[in-house]
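Sequence only, no structure available. Ideas?
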Amino acid sequence: MATTGQPRDMRFVPHPDYDSLHLILGAVAEWVRSYACRRGYRNELMNCSAEDVARIAADLKVNQRELASLAEKGPNAADLLQKLLVALGIDPKDLDHYDPAVMRDLQRSCIMCDEKGRCRFDVANGVITEKFRDYCPNAFTLDALFKARQEQRRARRRRREPLASGLTPMPVFIAIRCCGPMAKS
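Reply:
I predicted one. Tokens follow.
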């Protein structure tokens, strides 16, 4: 090979398919990492005694096979539920505090749901509140919670609405405190 005396251009020129190949390899690596992580959770459960597994399953009100399936999904498997609740105006912490059984059922259904890709897409595009009813196994319960939340807001607004005379209703305890006890005649 003859050289012309000019320095060769040593800049890296990536292959045109490099970006798509990088994406594919990244997705495969993430799947392997996720699979290993899920197997780890299932293995942790398998390291427990049969009595411990039975106790955990009873505490969660599931059978042992369902517990193994839930454990295999990993701790973040119900994260989309949190995002959906927030999008619907429902505070997940309040729901968990005031009705833990409902929250646990919602989480269990979400964890076992096969529509996570669709849900993730709708959350990312900001259309989850319009589309979840088409595929979410929790749609009926979430609709009931959403309607109850709307009714609470309406009731709160009604309490704040002015009276026909234009006066705002004053709670009884404030009226007594401000005006004092009624004078005796």
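Residues 172-185 have pLDDT under 50 and may be disordered.
Hope that gets you unstuck.
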